[in-house]
Structure formats: structure tokens, C-alpha cells
Amino acid sequence: MPQHLCPHCLQALPGGFHGECPHCARSLENKNPEGALPLGTQLVGGKYTVGSYISADGDGLTYRAVLNEEKRFVLIKEYFPVTLCNGRSPEGALMPKEGREVLFKTSRMDFKDLYDDLRELTPATGLSTILDVWEENNTVYAVEETEKGMTLTHYLSLRSRTLTPAEARTLLQPIMEGVALLHKSGLIHRGICPDNILLPIDGAARLTGYGTLALRTGGSELKSQLYPGYAAPEQYSAAEFSGRYTDVYALGAVCYKMVTGQTPIAAPQRKVRDSLESAHSLEAGVPTWFSQVLGCSLRLDPARRMQTVPELMSALTDPNVANAMFERGENQISTRKIMAVSLVVIAVLTLLLVWSFSRRRDDTPTQVATPPPVTVQDADSGSEIQTVPNLVGKNYADEVKDSDLYAGYRFVLTEQNSSDVAAGVIISQDPLAGTLKTESNQILQIVVSKGPNLVEMPDILGYTQANASKKLDALEIQYKMTIVENDGTMAAGCVAETSVSVGTRFNAGKVVVIVSIAGERDDSLVASAASTEPESTDPVSEGAESVSESTESAPE
User: Fold this and answer.
1) Distance between CA atoms of 521 and 483, rounded to whole angstroms?
2) In which residue ranges of the chain is CATH 1.10.510.10 found?
3) Contacts of 537 by beta carbon, 8 Å cutoff, 6+ apart
4) Cis peptide before 431 (omega within 30 of 0)
5) Is the Cβ–Cβ distance between 519 and 239 less than 8 Å?
6) CATH 3.30.10.20 domain span(s) along the chain
């Protein structure tokens, strides 16, 4: 039997959990709310000791806890959807409400999948570390690392002035890097706010407050947890879909708070009458370009909002980047950038035209090809100067790899799918053609086409929106999700149909898959559906929440 440690001071408790700790004199009596795990509860055979209850949200309860073997404090989050549970059995197991068993299991699966993914992803820059995930008591537990420090909310309340844009950007840099990593892994946080940003005593800021999709969506059957001012407008309706742009909105809102001292107006209010003032108008020290970037990240329409975190990071860092991306706060290419690109295009076309005329002077018929490397004499030194050849459009294996024409180059090859360029053909190069060759053995980075991304349509029927998105993102499949009417036989929020049949191979770069998500159930239809349809032999019905108690699993 492992030795029990005091959840307050980490000292050994030879007398068990009663009375006061003999070391710190703090009470060992259970004061956790009814329904929560009692103080002193042992999990995983004594690996963890549950301490004080901290908080509850729509999909779980959070406790202070002790990792006994390492004698250190941690946080434990227990899957406990209050709207789907009838409490605990005497043995501590969660009991789902009658008629909510399927949804309970589905959302439990979402919870475990989320924390399993986070455990694989962390530790990472800007993300709070998930140490452990397991199933016990008919539920799921996740252990999160805890560090001494304060929340960003507390930090801002202690300051006598707002942060400068440079200070805000520096503080948020690790958070934005962490969120970008989440997005790359197919995860969306949806709960970024000052309360969920931790500032450790030593080290960079970290993002915590992870939660499932249903928790962060208004109108779902779980109790939603939205953060007014930081939650994007699409989070307030189960009929709208969130994406990377949802976290961009929240990051922009956090930065807005840091440089102005004011929380942005909540999205529902802005939809009625958008009176959000620019950061520059509230705080004159905020540069106009910086204010414009924040304004673009806080657009109500996701299609007009800045789309990715790296895009936001770049625009907040460099005014030249911001000015090139936006004109007068609009999400469009600036006039200056258009003019610059136009000048380059004109110059290139002029060079190609001159070269074409020079080729025509040769009476010998020749195959049309890209211009060869150009060698000229340096007027001062008399040495030869060579320019980088144009390899774009050439077949790497057949025309470039072993050709004596390019013996003075070393190639660094990267492959990527392309729907427009044949397999084996060079898509791009760096340095660009016409650039002066600087070394005798010049390095050329080239991107070679792997051809179209041909994928097989996976079976995502019955998946939750979050799990379906993750599956499709991993295969780089383009998709659009739509809400369809629920006849009472499908679980709300789960995939009912896809426009591409399961097992079909298709070009992922050309085809957009329409994914139909079942809307809210009309419970009045359940009885009539049950009376007219034969009893299913499938152990898991097509998402109906009122399945028999023999149902043991849901789609992963």
C-alpha cells in the first residue's frame, strides 16, 4: 500500500485522512462539494491523492492533487458532464442519465481523445503539460502539470499601466507558438482568455484551460463555457462551425485587452450593434498598423477574419508585413504590394521577351526551354559571374539530378502534393532563377511535386464534429460542414452523411467533401420512429440517444 501524503504539504500521513495534518496543521476533513471526489481519494491504486476541489465546467471537475511517488502537486480533471450525469454510485462510478447514455459515452470519448492528443503534443512551448490520462470509475481522468505563478488576469490587475505592443507581443509569443502547434495537430482550443494563460515564476507563459468542442459551443447538450469578449461569434451557435480562425479571434482579443486595458465587447452584442473601438482610439500609444491588425483578427465574419496564427504573429511583429497584408484595416492585399509585384512581373516579362527575340535569331530549330544559366564578365575583376538557372517546370530525375549542366549545384529536395503539377516536376526553387551564384557549390532548395494527393474517403459516419475534423485534417482533405435536419434517429452534433462515399479514392486537392452534421433532435419524433422501424441488430444504433443499456461503445 503506497504511503499517503498530505494534499496540503506533501508530508507523510501515518494516521490517514482525518483530523489535522501533524506537519502543517491543516484540516484533512473532506470539504469538497457533494458529488465531487472526497479529499484523500486514491486513484490508480494510490498513484494519485485527490486534494481540494477547485472548479467545475460543462465537461469536468478540477481538483488539486498529489503525485505520490514524486511528491509533487498536480491538477486532476475528471470528466463529469453535469447535464448528462445522475451523480455517482456508492463505489464512486459516474452514472449517466437515462436516455443520455450514448451522448455520455460519445462526449467521454471526445474528452479522452482530446487529452490523449495533448499528452502526445506536450510538453511544448506555450502549452501546459498533460502528464497522464486514464479511465476509472466509468469516467476519464487527465493530469496536468501545475506551476507557481499567476494568471494573466491577475497580472494585468496588478499593473498600473497597459502593456506596450512590444511587451504584449513578447508575452504572447510562446502562447501563439503553442496554439499554432495545436492547429497543426488538428486541435482547436476555443477557450483562450486571460484566465487560461498562466505566467510561471520562472519560464514563459503557458496556455491551459483545455476543453472539448461541446463545452465551448453554445446550444450543445453539455453546459457551455464561453468567455465573453474572447469567445468568437461562431461559438455561440451549434449551427456554426469553429476553426483556426476561432482561436485567432481570441488571441486578438487577449492582445487588445493587454494594450488597451479593456475587454472587447462580447460577440453577441457586437452582432446587434458593432461599436468596438479600435485599440489606437483607446490608447494613443498603440500604432495604427498594430491596431488595424487587431481589428482584422476581431472581425465577426470568419471569412473576413485573419485565418491563421502564424499570419497574426507576423503581422503583429513587423509593420512592413502588416502594411503589405492590409490596407486601411481591410483584409486585402495593399496597393503598394500590388504595385511592387506588378513591377517585378513587368521586369521578368521584359527579360523573357528580350531572350525570346534573341532565340529567334538562331535559324536552327530548337525545342522551347527555360533560359540557361547566364555567365558574364565582372568589369572590375574580370572574373566570371554566373546566375542561378531556372529549374521550375523541369523533371528533377530526368533533366536535373545527374545533368552536367548543374554540376556546380547541390540540391536540397522537398516533396509536396500538387494537383496542377505532374509528379517529379519541380514546383519552386530557392534562390530564384536569375539570382547571382555566390558559391562554387551553390545550394539550391527545390520543391518537387508528388502529384495529386489521392486519398481514400475514411468512414466518419457517427463521429462527432471534432473527431471528424481531426480525421479529415490528418488526410489533408478539404471539407465543408453543414447542419441537416435530425429526424430523431441521429445523435445531435454527429456526422450523418458525406458527399463522398466511404472507400472512394479521390484527389484531395480538387474535391471538397460536404459533411452533413445532424442538428438538434426533435424528441417527439423518436417514439414514432421506434414504432415504425424494425429493431436494430447493430449493437450501436445510428446515434439515437435512447439505446438499450447493452450498448457498449461508440464510433472512435
Assistant:
1) 12
2) 149-329
3) none
4) yes
5) yes
6) 371-452, 454-532
Amino acid 348: pLDDT: 54
Question: Can you give the pTM of this predicted structure?
Answer: 0.60
> CATH code for 149-329?
1.10.510.10
Cell (9 digits) for 501: 462515399
Task: Give yes or no for a contact between 551 and 101, defined as CB atoms under 8 angstroms apart.
Answer: yes
Going by C-alpha positions, the residue among 550, 527, 530, 524 that lies closest to residue 539 is 550
Nearby residues of 320 by Cβ (< 8 Å), 6 or more positions away:
none
Amino acid at the residue 252: G
pLDDT of 549 reads 35
What span, in angstroms and rounded, lies between the C-alpha atoms of 192 and 267?
Answer: 15
Assign domain 454-532 to its CATH architecture: 2-Layer Sandwich (3.30)
Pairwise CA distance, residues 326 & 288, whole Å: 12
**For residue 268, how many other CB atoms are within 10 A of its CB?**
14
Burial of 149 (0-12, 13-18, 19+ CB in 10 A): middle
Task: Give burial (CB, 10 Å; 0-12/13-18/19+) of 298.
Answer: buried
pLDDT tens per residue across span 172-206: 999 999 999 988 888 899 999 999 999 988 778 99
CATH number assigned to the domain covering 42-145: 3.30.200.20
Residues of the chain with pLDDT under 50: 328-342, 345, 360-371, 374, 376-381, 524-556
**CATH of segment(s) 371-452:** 3.30.10.20
C-alpha cell at 497: 452523411
The distance of Cα 493 from the centroid of its chain, to the nearest Å, equals 19
- Read out DSSP for 127-193? BPPEEEEEEETTEEEEEEE--SEEEHHHHHHH-SSPPPHHHHHHHHHHHHHHHHHHHHTT------S
Residue 427 belongs to what H/E stretch? strand 426-430
Domain with CATH 3.30.200.20 in the chain: 42-145
**Tens of pLDDT along 15-31?**
777 788 888 888 888 88
Q: What is the 3-state secondary structure (H, E, C) of 246-289?
A: HHHHHHHHHHHHHHHCCCCCCHHHHHHCCCCCCHHHHCCCCCHH
SS3 letters for 15-56? Answer: CCCCCECCCCCCECCCCCCCCCCCCCCEECCCCEEEEEEEEE
Q: Which three cell numbers stand for residue 456?
A: 481514400
Q: What angle do CA 289, 291, 293 make, to 5 degrees?
A: 70
Please, which residues bridge with residue 64 across strands?
Answer: 75
